[in-house]
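User: Here's a chain of 110 residues. Predict its fold as C-alpha cells.
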Amino acid sequence: MSRTTRSTLAVARKAFKVGQNALPDYSHRNSPKKFTQPQLFALLVLRQFFGTDYRGLIVRLEEWSELRRTLKLKSVPHYSTLCYAERRLLKKTPPIESLMPSWWKRENRG
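Assistant: Prediction complete.
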C-alpha cells in the first residue's frame, strides 16, 4: 500500500526541498530576485496538488500565512509570475518525476 499525504504543508516542504536541491535560486543573474525558482517550483506543485488554476492558488496563498512562512515567501506573487515560471521550468528542467527522490517514485508507482 502506498503512503500518500493530505497535508498541504508537508507537500509544500517536500517540493521546496526538491526544488532547492535541483534548481538554482534564480534563472538568470539579472532576475528581479523577488522569488526563488525553488519557491516557484513548490507553488507549481501545490497548484497541481490543489487541482486549481494560478489565480486560485494565489487566493489560497493570500489567506494562508503559515503556507507563506513554510515557503519563505516575503510577498505573494502575481498569478502571471507562476505562468511564466511554469513555462520556463518546463523548458529547462527534466520531467518532474526525475527531480523527485527515490522514495517518492516507489510510493507513487501506479
